[in-house]
Amino acid sequence: MTAKATNPETDQTGMRIDIITVFPEMAQAALDYSIVKRAADRGLITINVINLRDYTFDRHRTTDDTPYGGGGGMVMKIEPIGLALDAIRASASPDSRPPRILLTEPRGKTFNQEMARELAAEDHIVILCGHYEGVDDRVRQLMVTDEVSIGDFILTGGELPALMIADAVTRLQEGALGDAEAPDKDTFSDNLLEYPHYTRPVEYNGSRVPDILLSGHHARIEKWRRWHQLQTTKERRPDLFAKINLSDADRKLMNQPEPQAPEDKKKTPVNTA
């Protein structure tokens, strides 16, 4: 199964992501919507969903087996994974760099926006979806380049982490969001959380959109947004805030109350149609 697309202008594809899974329908369904699908349709990214069972040879298409040494659960077998990776390498361009091979696994490095940017700069990544008690450890030792976790909790399988990684990386491809500057405005782009967003109606059950956003005073709006980013990050994610190189203007802004609309712009009637 594939979400592959070719750019009609260049007849070339963009970054390539291969997702190896025992549940290809689950992964493919999520890739057929929104930004990821539009990016694939425009040739900005190529995503291949690979059924690990296609690389088995027994009647039951077995991808797991009982663990040596006893214990509960099942372990993903090394042979199908090795064959799938061999096929991926064989299908790559001869002059291309070897792909980064990611294993979704609870012991891995925690995925974040910095890692997303790093992976987005690659030409080709492979994401192996872990399952059951995990994979034969020789896969980790011999075949993967990165072990990646999405947090300190346990999921049934690696499909959701793989889709999250693919989505985050796709968003960072040039042109994927339409606005070239959009990725730089996202939460975590500079270790800052995003500012609050509002849309119509102006009032809902007595709760009103901040007047400053209705004022048309763009400089003050940008100041208001920056103030909220700084204050929210400091309060909610002090670990991120500690990484920020605050400018003198940022320090001054944080010591001020929340920026407000000019007096003559407060509670200005706004057309909500």
Describe this structure in words.
The chain contains eleven helices and ten strands. By secondary structure, it is α/β, with parallel strands linked by helices. It has a six-stranded mixed beta sheet with strand order 1-3-2-7-6-8, sandwiched between helices. The chain has a two-stranded antiparallel sheet with strand order 4-5. The model is unreliable at 1-12 (pLDDT under 50).
Arithmetic mean of pLDDT: 90
- DSSP summary, beta strand count: 10
Number of helices: 11
CATH architecture name of the largest domain: 3-Layer(aba) Sandwich
Range of strand content: 15-25%
- What is the element string, with H for helices and E for strands? EEHHEEEHEHEHEHHEEHHHH
Shape: elongated
CATH top-level class of the largest domain: Alpha Beta
